[in-house]
UniProtKB/TrEMBL annotation:
Protein name per Swiss-Prot or TrEMBL: 6-phosphogluconolactonase
Task of the protein: Hydrolysis of 6-phosphogluconolactone to 6-phosphogluconate.
EC number, UniProt record: 3.1.1.31
InterPro entries noted in UniProt: 6-phosphogluconolactonase_DevB, 6PGL, Glc/Gal-6P_isomerase, NagB/RpiA_transferase-like
CDD domains with a match to the protein in the record: 6PGL
UniProt domain Glucosamine/galactosamine-6-phosphate isomerase: residue ranges: 10-219
GO biological process annotation, one example: pentose-phosphate shunt
Keywords of the record: Hydrolase
Organism placement in taxonomy: Bacteria, Pseudomonadati, Pseudomonadota, Alphaproteobacteria, Rhodobacterales
Family, per entry: Belongs to the glucosamine/galactosamine-6-phosphate isomerase family. 6-phosphogluconolactonase subfamily.
Organism in which the protein naturally occurs: Rubrimonas cliftonensis
Amino acid sequence: MTTAVERHPSREALAGALADRIAADLKAALDTRGRATLAVPGGTTPGPFLTALGARPLNWERVAVTLTDERWVPTSSDRSNQRLVGETLFRGPAAGAEFAPLYGATAEPAQSMDAVCASLERLVLPLDVVVCGMGEDLHAASLFPGADKLRAALAPDAPPALAMRAPGAPEPRVTLTAPVLRGAAHAYLLIVGAAKREALARAEAETDEETAPVRVLLTRTKPLTVFYAD
Ligand SMILES: O=C(O)[C@H](O)[C@@H](O)[C@H](O)[C@H](O)COP(=O)(O)O
């Protein structure tokens, strides 16, 4: 398996190039359909990209945004991905976009899943664009190896989002599921550093999705591009 990798000379250049690419994808969807939908990752890598994308001029009022996954923490927590997009993507013109949160402020994520799935169906599905990060353990979104609902989330008939607990995640998670990640018209994997480049090579050599859930993206029939910088 060979995945298309775009290597950029610096992390700053990577953030700008990915923002340009996604703004172009969103603009094409807006020109064709009059609306566009996007899912973005949380974690430590995407901040500069999210800030760059949020500053791009687009008809953001016609764009709906969600997260690829969320940590079940209050939105005031510095581990909240919703907080991250509020402090990056939604600081610029993109503040006019509609947002479908994955966090629902119930004690347990499972209690919010019907409402979360309904809002995803109403606002953002199918996705025009999904951007995912990847962990060195080969997770993408919150599809972690060893997660309690991993098999259900990889199933072709999975609901759009599932609550997930995983040994590698310090708090409960909510994740978009395999059919949503596969169904997005355009997918991007945003990774930095040699350890993740090596992890990607491991994922390409794997055959088992439960061992390497990021393969949900690698085996898509629709386009996937990896954006990488050292
Ligand atoms: O909320 C999250 O943790 C994510 O969305 C997750 O899937 C992330 O993209 C990877 O864990 C990579 O995270 P880093 O960018 O922090 O390495």
